[in-house]
Each structure stands twice: as structure tokens, then as C-alpha cells.
Amino acid sequence: MADYELAGRRVRSLSDRAGDCGQGDFSVQVGADLVSAELIGRVLGRETERFTVQYISFSNIPIPHGCSTRIGGVSSGAYESLNIGQSTADAPSYVHENRRRLGMAVGVMPVSLLDMNHGTRVVRFDQLPRGLHKGDACITNVPGLPLMITTADCVPLIMYDTVHKAVGLTHAGWRGTVAKISQYTLQAMHDNYGTDPADVQAAVGPSIGPCCFEVGPEVAEQFREAFPQQKSLIIEHLMLKSQQELLQKKENILKLYINLWRANLLTLLEAGIPAGNIRFSGLCTMCNRGLFYSYRRDQRVTGRIATLAMLPE
Questions:
Q1: Taking the mean position of all CA atoms in its chain, how far away is CA 75?
Q2: Is residue 241 very low, low, confident or very high in pLDDT (cuts 50, 70, 90)?
Q3: Beta strands, E only, 130-233
């Protein structure tokens, strides 16, 4: 197996590809950076190959961190190419190799920590565990201890306490978003490390956007109840049926879409994080097939992206 050396990184802004995050009048910045890390694989000191691993980073998070893309790995088929998910049907040896490459590129080694079940449990890590802990968010204040969550449409959040030097990662699917899991994460950081939300820098990574997250009326109703003053979270599109059905029944179809980005923004603001401390990638995983895996688009057979963060040693 090759040892890897980092030959360099190139950074390009993706703000021109960012979608509408529903930020409205808030002074929230939308747009992340695409980092291309060139790696050199060597066997016994001999140069063997050069390749590029790409990941997403945020200018307001000053610690090693990143959200992986699907670029730069060895997996094939539905998992092409940088699949990080061990729970998929991808070959474990490929996933292991992908994780090695991503770790070298980002500077944070991907380590599985959580058995995520769309709840609100936050797990504090003081050392690497021997097994998975049930939870959908993780926090630490230990330098050099890598945190990771994996997603394929759900919303990943990074929260960094600039004063007490603590970090938290949150996995917010629609259920976690309705339950406002990021507030549970911030509360756990306050209880364990004294975190004040006013000192937190937050970043919201790639996930399914309001352009693609279609839901049924029962899910829409849960968002209405959780965010009663925010009608703009639910987007209604009146779609014509087929021409034949239209002629016969003269009916239209009302489709409902949820803006998970705005919902999580409102949750962070409600918790006390200043709008100027929040960054959104604005990148939809379902739209950007070349960059990201999507559980919904790919009908459940797909890879996973990792969101990583670590306090520097």
C-alpha cells in the first residue's frame, strides 16, 4: 500500500454555484471553497502516481475541517469514487483507501464515531472510542481528536467555539431539523465547555436544497408546527398533470418543497449565533451529481460524504 504525501492545495470559490439558502435580510454569507489537494503516492520512496482529492471548506472555520466530495477515490459504480461510508455495500478495502486519501488531503483522519438515527443525542468525545456511539452530533475540546459525521442529503453543520476552543459536528436530516438538533449541540457545548453562542462560528455544508427536497403534507405540517412564523420554509409549486389527464380531469398537482437550509439558519439564529458568523455552502447534493452523492437522487444506492473537523494540536 502506498504512502501519501501532500504536494499542495488549490482553492477555488464556488459562490457562483450557490443556491438560495433563504437567508433573506440576514447578513449570512453564502458560498464555500472547493479545495483541490494534490497527493503523491509512493512505494518504498519511489513516486508512483499523482491524483487530486477535492473537498469543501469554509473561510470562517479556522481549524482543520472539510466536507468531502466524490472526487479523488478508488470506488466504482454507484459509489464512484471517494465513498466514505462504511455502512454501504461498497468494498471495505475501497472505503478504507478513500478515507486514507481524504485524511491526508484535509489533515483530519476520518474515523467512525456515531451510529446516527435522526435523533437529537449529542455525544462528547474525550478520546477515540472502541465502538460506535448512538447519536447525531458530537463535540470535543481535545486537540488532535478528529470528529466526523457522514451524510448523503442530510444537512451537516460545523460549530467552532473561538473562545473556549471546542468544536461540534451535527447531522440534521429533516427530523433533526424539525427537532432543532443544532440547539442541542450548542447546549451540550455550553454545558461541557462554557460555550457562548455569540462566540461560535458555524458552517452549513452541502445537502439537499429547497430546489429538490419534495415532501408530503404530513412532513410539511411538522415544519409548520416547528416554525409557526416561517411560511417561507414551505415552497408550493403548482404542477400541470400530463396533457391527457389535464384534458380529462382539469386538475393540477400541488407539490411541496422544504427549505432545510433556511430552517437550520433560523435555528442557529434563535440559539444566539450572530448572522455574520454563519456560512452556507448553498450546494445541493441532488443537483450536483458530479460533486456529491445523493440518497434521494440515486434511490438509496449511493456513497456518503464526510464532514470532518479537528482542533489543532
A1: 20
A2: very low
A3: 133-134, 137-140, 147-151, 155-161, 166-172, 200-204, 214-215
All three cell numbers of 33, joined, read 471553497
DSSP symbols for 217-234: HHHHHHHHHHSTT-GGGE
Q: How far apart are CA 159 and CA 80, in angstroms?
A: 29
Amino acid at 80: E
CA angle 154, 157, 161 (to 5 degrees): 165
Band (pLDDT 50/70/90 cuts) for residue 249 is low
Indicate the residue type of 6: L
242 has pLDDT over 90: no
Place of cell 415552497: 235
Q: Judge whether residue 161 has pLDDT over 70.
A: yes
Is residue 204 a contact partner of residue 261, using CB atoms and an 8 Å limit? yes
